[in-house]
C-alpha cells in the first residue's frame, strides 16, 4: 500500500475509504487537498467528500471511481469546493453542505443527521471554528473514523481565520471530537490520516491553551492596543513568514476570544 503523499493515485486507507490527493500543495494546504471516496465493499455507488480544487485531471480520476450520486462538503474553502461544478457535470451528483448556498439539488446538512450512502452510515457533526460552516462526518462502522475536514489536520495545526473563524466555537468543536473513544481514526482534509481523533483533538486543545497564554503575555508587553501583526511578530516568530497573513487572522480570532471573555478591552 502506498503512503501519503501519493499524487494521482487512489490510495486505500480503510476497508471503505480511499483518498486521492490533489496536486495543490502550499503552506496552507500542506501536501494538497484530500478528496475522500467512500464505498463499503459490495456497494455499487460511492460518496465523495470534498471534490477539491478545479483540477480537471484530479476531478476525472475521482469521477472514474463512480457512480457518485452524492457529494459531501466539509466547508466552503475553494481548495475543497472549486471543483464542485465540474464534478457535478461529470457525475450528476447531488451536493450537500451546511451552507445552503453550496448545496445542489439537495437539502443542507443538519447536525446529528445520519446519512446513508455508499453502503455506509455517516453522522454529521457541526465542528465550527475553522470556518462557520465546518462539519465533520463520523462513520458508524466496525472500522470507525471521522472525516475532519480542516478542523483537525494530519500534520500541524489549523487556522482559525477571523471573522469567519471563531475560536470559542473551535474550542467547543475540539472538545466534541475529544469525546470519541480511543482508536477512532481521523481522516483529514490535508495531511496523512491519524490513528486517534481523540488524541489529536486533545493535542489541539492544549496547543490552543498555550497559544492563548502567549497572546496574553504579548498583549501585556505591547499594550492593549497592540495590532494582530505586532502579536504575530512575538508569538509566531518561529513560524514560516509565508503563513503570517493567516497567523494575523488567527491572532485576531484569539484577541476577539479574550475580549469576549472580558480579558481585553474591545477595540
Question: What does this 3D model show about the protein?
Answer:
This protein is α/β, with parallel strands linked by helices. 31% of the residues lie in helices and 17% in strands. It has seven helices and eleven strands. The strands form two sheets. It has a six-stranded mixed β-sheet, covered by helices on one side. Strands 7-8-9-10-11 form a five-stranded mixed β-sheet, with no helix packed on it. Strand 7 and strand 8 form a beta hairpin. It starts with 10 loop residues before the first strand and ends in a 7-residue tail after the last helix.
What oligomeric state do these chains adopt? single chain
Question: How many DSSP H or I helices?
Answer: 7
Helix content: 25-40%
Overall pLDDT score: 94
Order of helices and strands: EEEEHEHHEEEEEHEHHH
CA-atom Rg in angstroms = 19 Å
Largest sheet: 6 strands, mixed
Q: Give the amount of beta strand, in percent.
A: 15-25%
Beta-strand segment tally: 11
Based on secondary structure, the structural category is alpha/beta
The poorly predicted ranges are none
Q: How would you describe the shape?
A: elongated
Distance between the termini: 53 Å
Question: Can you list the strand order of the major beta sheet?
Answer: 1-2-3-4-5-6
